[in-house]
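Appendix C: a fully annotated inverse folding record. The material below is reproduced so that readers can follow the format used throughout the book. The structure is listed first as tokens, followed by the designed sequence.
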């Protein structure tokens, strides 16, 4: 049977939606596997492996829908972190299309198209959608619920669709559970369609649709073991102890905004958007919010309550990641579209077309060079790319260089345990061959490291906390065994620890021994550091020279969650992972050191190998060539990223 042609008036809309979705999908899939596993992405891969083995409760703090989509993606594309991120990228592109439709309903056609462009090409939404976590899928389903809700006026049956989509969003991430009550409340106060009939029967029907959709897509809640896990997990977090699965490392506060904080500062998310989004994106959103506040129509108030209200609410939570901003981004983009519509209203068509081209260019020019690591983008207001680690590490790049650092430890420092902020990541990247211990709480004393059996310490510029800052500061007196750089930024250091618990250092090689030391650089144990930080005796000349050389600021903390003893468990914030807002960028290469860096880079080194970001022995399928190329990224992207990475081994 021939398909019915679309009505003539609907063709431009369908073509425009296809263009928005395609452009959004391209930028989200481009080199999507370039970054190492970020935050708890490796737990998702472990959960998928457990699913295949018949164990369903691994990573049980999250519902099943995203893991089901990731199970399909990894089965088709291979068990890698890039394949894990594909469902998020696809859901993010779908959210851009839905934002166009919601924006057209609330603010007008031009505002809807502008909102779609702001979401499709914005550095913040692109970075969030390239993380193998539940947020993008939750947002796409939630936007579907909002769109149906906006068309439910006088159509009671559509509330069942609203409830079903809201239940599906909660099946992607439990944090979407308040969506349906929020929509009911918005209707009650006059900001949208009201639930009809408003009686008990109507409410029960809507609640039943929500529960049915949620359980159909998250059947894990039907297992008693799932409820037992959730009870143990939440009780452990509330009590300030590690949860049963050991995925959360207890911490004693973390660094944020230039000083040590026990909690995330309330103004972080607003500042994050100000420096991590393109200037054109920020200007349009601020102008649109001001316009909506001045007009105060019903759609304007709904957008303000949705966007600014959500940002204000999530800012009060003492934990968070950048991806927690995802629910607010469509509303902020529609507000930006509102400003664009107001600025271009009444202009000749050729002026509007030229302005649209200029707007897309203003978004694309900063985004294109940031790929395949859009989370490293920093606007000129934040200092540009040289300040990337000053404001980042982000959800997708918090563990940049971890795979290479772990591979170095396996090759050159096999003895002893690896002290790291996330021991599970070390064990995952090494395929379980390395023993790891949490660096949190390790005292900066040789006796403490010796008692813990530490043979090496992995330090990343994305990790610092009240509990590990003293140790990292103490280690700064020694030379790292290896340094990993990406785009000129130090993303990882490895310090070797001797049997006596003291970090190793090396004295400069003489011309007579340079050749021998170059040949044995990967295995030479070096000379133990003689001066301890607590001593008052004069340090040897070599030690004084090492301690006085310029060093990068201390690393900062990233982990899936952190717990303040005696307080409520809280994930280590993407905004508070030590982004000092007042100090120089961690890892930035100062001009005075470039010549020395170039000289070190010219020396001959042993070949550098990198471990794949997946567990060894996992199976791969044979995907279509085009999709596989999109998932893994082109060889040119990988070469460009590798060209910006430098690891020096002393």
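Designed amino acids, in order:
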């Amino acid at each position: 049977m021939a398909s019915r042609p679309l009505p003539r008036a609907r063709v431009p809309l369908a073509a425009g939606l296809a263009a928005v979705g395609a452009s959004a999908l391209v930028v989200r899939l481009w080199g999507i596997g370039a970054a190492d596993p970020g935050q708890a992405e490796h737990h998702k891969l472990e959960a998928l492996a457990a699913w295949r083995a018949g164990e369903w409760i691994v990573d049980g703090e999250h519902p099943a829908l995203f893991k089901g989509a990731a199970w399909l993606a990894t089965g088709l594309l291979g068990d890698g972190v890039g394949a894990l991120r594909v469902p998020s990228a696809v859901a993010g592109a779908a959210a851009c299309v839905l934002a166009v439709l919601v924006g057209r309903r609330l603010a007008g056609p031009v505002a809807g198209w502008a909102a779609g462009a702001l979401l499709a090409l914005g550095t913040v939404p692109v970075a969030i959608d390239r993380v193998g976590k539940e947020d993008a899928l939750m947002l796409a389903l939630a936007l579907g619920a909002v769109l149906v809700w906006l068309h439910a006026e006088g159509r009671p049956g559509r509330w069942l669709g609203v409830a079903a989509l809201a239940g599906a969003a909660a099946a992607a991430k439990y944090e979407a559970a308040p969506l349906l009550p929020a929509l009911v409340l918005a209707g009650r106060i006059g900001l949208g369609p009201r639930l009809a009939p408003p009686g008990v029967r109507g409410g029960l029907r809507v609640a039943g649709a929500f529960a049915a959709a949620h359980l159909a897509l998250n059947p894990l809640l039907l297992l008693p073991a799932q409820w037992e896990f959730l009870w143990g997990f939440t009780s452990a977090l509330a009590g300030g102890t590690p949860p049963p699965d050991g995925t959360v490392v207890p911490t004693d506060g973390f660094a944020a905004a230039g000083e040590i904080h026990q909690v995330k500062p309330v103004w972080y998310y607003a500042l994050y958007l100000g420096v991590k989004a393109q200037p054109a994106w920020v200007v349009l959103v601020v102008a649109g919010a001001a316009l909506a506040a001045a007009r105060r129509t019903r759609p304007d108030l709904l957008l303000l309550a949705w966007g600014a209200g959500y940002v204000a609410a999530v800012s009060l939570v003492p934990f968070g990641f950048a991806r927690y901003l995802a629910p607010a981004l469509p509303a902020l983009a529609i507000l930006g579209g509102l400003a664009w519509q107001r600025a271009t209203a009444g202009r000749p068509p050729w002026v509007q077309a030229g302005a649209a081209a200029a707007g897309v260019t203003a978004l694309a020019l900063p985004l294109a060079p940031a790929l395949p690591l859009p989370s490293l983008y920093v606007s000129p207001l934040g200092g540009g790319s040289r300040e990337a680690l000053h404001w980042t590490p982000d959800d997708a790049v918090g563990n940049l260089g971890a795979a290479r650092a772990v591979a170095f430890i396996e090759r050159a420092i096999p003895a002893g345990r690896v002290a790291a902020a996330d021991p599970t990541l070390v064990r995952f990247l090494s395929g379980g061959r390395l023993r790891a211990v949490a660096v949190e709480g390790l005292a900066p004393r040789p006796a403490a490291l010796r008692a813990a059996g530490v043979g090496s310490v992995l330090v990343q510029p994305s990790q610092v906390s009240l509990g590990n800052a003293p140790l990292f500061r103490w280690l700064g007196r020694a030379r790292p065994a290896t340094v990993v750089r990406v785009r000129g930024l130090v993303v990882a250091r490895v310090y070797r620890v001797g049997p006596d618990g003291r970090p190793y250092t090396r004295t400069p090689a003489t011309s007579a021994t340079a050749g021998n030391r170059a040949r044995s650089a990967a295995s030479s144990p070096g000379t133990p550091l003689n001066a301890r930080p607590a001593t008052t005796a004069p340090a040897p000349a070599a030690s004084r020279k090492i301690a006085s050389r310029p060093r990068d600021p201390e690393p900062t903390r990233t982990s899936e969650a952190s717990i303040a003893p005696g307080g409520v468990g809280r994930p280590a914030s993407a905004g508070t992972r030590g982004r000092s807002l007042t100090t120089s960028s961690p890892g930035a290469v100062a001009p005075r050191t470039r010549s020395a860096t170039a000289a070190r880079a010219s020396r001959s080194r042993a070949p550098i190998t990198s471990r794949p970001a997946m567990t060894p022995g996992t199976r791969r399928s044979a995907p279509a060539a085009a999709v596989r190329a999109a998932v893994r990224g082109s060889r040119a992207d990988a070469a460009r990223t590798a060209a910006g990475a430098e690891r020096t081994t002393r």
